[in-house]
Specification:
alpha+beta, six-stranded antiparallel barrel, about 30% helix, globular
Length: about 325
């Protein structure tokens, strides 16, 4: 196209339209008028993104965790068998070993919380849906995925599903500024709401302004009505800072999330919620405090002290230090 006044005007007009659509989409949130177009894009481009992960597709097909109706032992046994089958398919290699470790950790978390999960791989990241913290995973409607399902990994809460295509889905990450989840504090059961702050710690508003909370306290998801968008008991993070209480109705704390949102690879979508709230059972064991070394000083008496000698005093059991020999001793 030639550089003419008309072409420049057209370019400015297209840029203005693009910014207008972005603004409408961000303000609209889940009810955005362009949500239909987004879903259509997911339908068209999802298979293309999915093709990138074809070499490791067994991850998505082999780790679907179907909850048993029996005891926890049966559930863990089924997960162990599924895990062993996946290990045989993935083989060796540094990357595969890392993925197997992630998978082991996630399956253990799912087993402890009794979550029925569908395994997935992160195949794309980006801000295609505005300026959000999102990822694309290689499972969709054909795999039983629906909107507002909880997403987790072996460390804890990853986010929730927002858009679903036939073979791929978009996940809004828990550190996104538009993300909010109900939380419950370990032990004290204090309730609150955690909000994302990008690359900064989560901001949690506790409902009790006088709540006793300290650095190191841990939080899990409280859960939602009908278990959507959040199931209960998923680890969220650890309190890293507490704002001084100023007599407000609520109290603010800052929480370092368990999940590293810049290192996501293997995740799980909760397709079936637990029958009962696992509460704090899924939290990792608390770290043991490092013992403080102590130094014991033992005082050893000197030779002079042991005999009771002094500079000019008598020697224990002997004669005075300045005593003179007798005549008999001289002879």
């Amino acid at each position: 196209m030639r550089d003419t006044k008309e072409s420049r005007l057209l370019l400015v007009l297209l840029i203005a339209i693009a910014f207008a659509l972005i603004t409408v989409d961000i303000r609209g949130g889940e009810n955005s008028p362009v949500d239909g177009a987004r879903q259509a894009a997911a339908t068209v481009f999802g298979p293309i993104e999915n093709g990138v992960s074809a070499a490791v597709n067994p991850v998505g097909n082999a780790i679907s965790a179907i909850r048993d109706s029996g005891e926890r032992h049966d559930r863990l046994t089924a997960l162990e068998k599924e895990n062993a089958a996946l290990k045989a398919k993935l083989g060796s290699g540094d990357r595969n070993r890392s993925r197997l470790q992630q998978l082991d950790k996630m399956l253990k978390l799912a087993g402890e919380g009794q979550y029925g999960i569908k395994g997935a791989e992160v195949i794309a990241i980006g801000a295609a849906q505005g300026f959000s913290w999102t990822i694309t995973i290689d499972v969709g409607a054909n795999d039983g995925i629906k909107r507002d399902m909880t997403v987790l990994n072996g460390d804890g809460l990853v986010g929730r599903v927002t858009t679903v295509g036939p073979d791929s889905s978009t996940v809004l990450l828990a550190n996104d500024p538009d993300f909010t989840v109900g939380t419950r504090m370990e032990g004290s059961d204090e309730l609150g709401f955690a909000s994302g702050q990008g690359d900064r710690p989560l901001r949690v508003q506790l409902l009790n302004g006088k709540a006793q909370v300290k650095k190191g306290d841990r939080l899990v998801t409280f859960g939602s009505e009908g278990d959507k968008p959040f199931v209960p008991g998923v680890p969220v993070g650890v309190v890293s800072r507490v704002d001084p209480s100023g007599g407000d109705l609520t109290r603010t704390v800052y929480v370092t999330p368990y999940v590293a949102f810049t290192k996501l690879d293997i995740v799980g979508v909760v397709v079936e919620a637990p029958k009962k709230d696992p509460r704090d059972e899924v939290l990792p064991p608390k770290p043991r405090p490092t013992p403080t070394p102590t130094v014991t000083v033992t005082v050893t008496p000197s030779a002079g002290a042991s005999t009771g000698a002094t500079a000019d005093g008598p020697v224990a059991g002997g004669e005075p230090a300045d005593a003179q020999p007798t005549d008999e001793q001289q002879q």
